[in-house]
TrEMBL record:
The lineage of its organism: Archaea, Methanobacteriati, Methanobacteriota, Stenosarchaea group, Methanomicrobia. This is Uncharacterized protein.
Length: 83
């Protein structure tokens, strides 16, 4: 994510929420589209490295319960591949 796209504050990040299904539950994630765009720019090649980076970046603006990390990782990778 470039400085230009970075939100100025938490309120701005909250305006950039998109809902996705994670483990059968619909959750709202702040900055998801920006995160996907930023990871895509990294030109990572393996699904594991992409999923790891997506999870790492999404945790900056969102709470991800430790017990649900695998479900979030799979959901984030699915969203990445669909875009």
């Amino acid at each position: 994510m470039t400085e230009k796209n970075r939100p100025c504050c938490a309120a701005e990040a909250m305006r950039r929420i998109r809902q996705i299904e994670v483990g059968g539950i619909v959750v709202g994630l702040a900055m998801l589209d920006d995160t996907i765009d930023g990871v895509r720019e990294m030109d990572l090649h393996s699904a594991d490295s992409i999923a790891d980076e997506l999870l790492k970046q999404i945790k900056i603006y969102n709470y991800v319960p430790g017990a649900a990390e695998a479900a979030y990782r799979a959901a984030l990778l699915r969203e990445y591949e669909m875009r």
